[in-house]
Amino acid sequence: MFHIVIPARYGSTRLPGKALVDIAGKPMVWWVWQRALGTSAASVIVATDHEEIAAVMTDFGADVQMTKATHPSGTDRLAEVVELRGWADDTVVINLQGDEPLMPESNIHQVATELSNHPSASIATLAEPIKSAAQFADPSVVKVIVDARGNALYFSRAPIPFSREGSRHTGPHDSPDDIAAAQRHAGLYAYRAGFLRQFVTWEQAPIERRESLEQLRALYQGCQIRVVTAAESVPPGVDTEADLAVVRRILDV
């Protein structure tokens, strides 16, 4: 059994009010909610701090949880939902971000199953092969390195692992072997409720501040993060007007 929480905030630097932007006659968060409803989740909750988002989604029939406006991240918002709903520490909670209207349902089930099957893990998440040297070098593409057991060793915006010998191609980070050693991290997470309760009590880790990646706080604290290759390709989320145009073309049916 697992629960899905969709953090949906109104503010966005690059695309203000994006949770409510129109896609084929429905707000974006509605499409995310529909994806979640197509799974076997015990509950699907839209967690927001914005009255308009709450009103719109309540009218659609969604289970809406109002949360504080001071949360620095969606993970902190999930932790508040865990407390408000009184979930036991071993409850599996999926963070399905409110700007992922194309996330395949199979991927959601995949992270839930992975965490359920590994009691020692605190988090499960997805990764995909890196497809090009440009993607490998792009700081907006988060790379993850895993160990032989499928646990995360490190996440970085940098092209890791670094090839000391350099590449036989055009640069130090673009040989096929270099690229194959890393994976692109996809931001879909399954957490244990007890972990979320702990997570919000920890200060930001130095490596987290450096990389601006909050999953590094969990690694810094010694938590185990399971990483599995996505069952289906993870479509892009919506961060910019260009992203929105792509999603509108796909969903405008």
Characterise this structure:
This protein is of the alpha/beta class. The protein has a domain of 122 residues: Spore Coat Polysaccharide Biosynthesis Protein SpsA, Chain A. Helix content is 33%, strand content 22%. It is built from ten helices and eleven strands. The strands form two sheets. Strands 1, 4, 5, 6, 7, 8, 9, 10 and 11 form a nine-stranded mixed sheet that branches. Helix 3 packs across helix 7. The protein is globular and about 60 Å long. The mean pLDDT is 92.
Briefly say what this structure is:
This protein has ten helices and eleven strands. The chain is α/β, with parallel strands linked by helices and 253 residues long.
What is the strand and helix layout of this fold?
Layout: E1 2-7, E2 22-23, E3 26-27, H1 28-37, E4 43-48, H2 51-60, E5 63-66, H3 74-85, E6 92-95, H4 105-116, E7 123-129, H5 133-137, E8 143-146, E9 152-156, H6 176-180, E10 183-192, H7 193-199, H8 206-211, H9 215-220, E11 225-229, H10 241-251
Parallel strand pairs: 1-4, 1-6, 4-5, 7-11
Antiparallel strand pairs: 2-3, 6-10, 7-10, 8-9, 8-10
Helix pairs in contact: 3-7
Defining traits:
253 residues, 33% helix, single chain, Spore Coat Polysaccharide Biosynthesis Protein SpsA, Chain A, nine-stranded mixed beta sheet
| H/E element sequence | EEEHEHEHEHEHEEHEHHHEH
Q: So how many helices?
A: 10
State the end-to-end CA separation: 33 Å
Global shape = globular
